[in-house]
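User: These chains co-purify. Model them together.
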Amino acid sequence: MVWGVLQFPGSCDERDALHACGLTGEARLIWHEERDLGGVDAIVVPGGFSYGDYLRAGAIARFSPAMEAVAEFAAAGGPVLGICNGFQVLCEADLLPGALLLNENLRFVCRQVDLIDAEGGRLSIPAKHGEGRYWVPEKMLDAIEANGQIAFRYAPGQNPNGSARDIAGVRNEAGNVLGLMPHPEHAVDAMTGSTDGLQVFEAVAGSLV
Amino acid sequence: MAKARVLIRPKEGILDPQGKAVERALPALGFEGVEHVRVGRMVELEAEDPARLPELCEKLLANPLIEDFEIESIDGG
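Assistant: Joint model of the two components:
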């Protein structure tokens, strides 16, 4: 399979994403001005500070030509993975429900966290963000929970940002768009302490088989 | 060109930690009795067609899920 990793001005995790994708297939960068995704099988919207996070994190990136193409790709059922700033971009683009707000304690968090996936599996993955407090109106929260759209929660006691119901990652209703605040692409090599992040890329790749 | 000012603030009921931090800092500076501080954003702009401002605010300047906005005309101020 071939992954496309978007790159905006201000992206900073696209290289690690490229490396992680490369472990489960081929991977290439897609510059934000490109309207053509070049026939890739899956998309990663990586972390960083796209367009300087001006206005709101992800608010400007969502209007880039590449994101217009990603919206069409997602509508056609193509798998899209948004990490950190990429998650914020996907929420701003209405490809995922909710919004990411300033961390409750106003501090940038940078530490390893344990996540619980939808099947109850535990993953150790780093989180590093200042605006990761997941929020949706209470009614929508019940709805996405009932639909099984909550992909990852912080393990009990490890919620680093005040996210509603410990939510670390959500899917869209169709299930092909996934966003999460922690960084699976930084946890694919034993040298950095954990290879659990690889599971996230393998799951997306596996959804294509 | 029509001059306008857009005020954007977090919706009621959404925790605003910036507002809380400001509120907590005030007594230390001798400003007692100030509460419900909310921190938002203000955008000034000049538009050829002010009728399009609400759409512009909903699409970009504010995120209607989490923020309310008000457009004030500042023409002839």
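The radius of gyration of chain B is 15 Å.
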